[in-house]
Amino acid sequence: WVFLYEKGYQSQDSIVSSVSVKLKGLTLTNESVLGPHIWDVVDYVFPPQGDNSFVVMTNFIVTPGQKQGTCPELPDAGLCTRDSDCSKGKYSRQGQGLKTGKCVPFNSTVKTCEIFGWCPVEVDYHVPSPALLSEAEKFTLFIKNSITFPKFKVSRRNLVESVTKQYLKKCTYHKVTDSLCPVFELGYIVKESGQNFTFLAVKGGVVGITIDWNCDLDWPLRYCKPIYQFHGLYNDDSNVSPGFNFR
Prior knowledge:
Elements: E1 16-24, E2 27-31, E3 35-39, H1 41-44, E4 45-46, E5 49-50, E6 55-56, E7 67-72, E8 97-105, E9 111-119, E10 140-149, E11 154-157, H2 165-170, E12 183-185, H3 186-192, H4 197-203, E13 207-212, E14 227-232
Antiparallel strand pairs: 1-5, 1-10, 2-3, 4-6, 7-9, 8-9, 10-11, 10-12, 13-14
């Protein structure tokens, strides 16, 4: 009974896996500084076609007329009262360029070190809210996953038998109605991870996707199917360095 019913004769194997992803989506922004601007995948995804990880830009800060030159550093990088406070050629950890050796007025009340870098420097005191690329919620992510069980010489893809060419053109993943569709809306992924996309899009966050292949190879291979799960890897309550790329 133990040997047959509990399948004590079976052995286990770990999978060797490869993953590639591709995102699609267009959105329009119409900021007073930039004017009308169409954003596509080459603008907001890094890299455009990734493997195990990728970054989707959902928000940004516009710094008009920025070019390489000299300008005052932000007060966050430190104040100064004389040129000797600004060591020429040095870079401050919180700074945005190399110091020229001059202490110059930042505004009518404080002085900061002059730097050579991208000027004027970016000011991130006020991050746009709602996020400028909030339409990214509707962008789609296509995941291709290939696996093999080396011990048993069995290979499988997440594009299983029911995922036909025609189905792939129109399906969108849903855990109940379309659980095998490999095309996911970013908003749905974030929701299933237990997070709020509108909040997450302002300063960013991290979401993990796992693909579980728990297959009983006693059965025909068509029963070996992927199970997708989504995990929030970001704590909303964090007060130190919140978000993904704002520092």
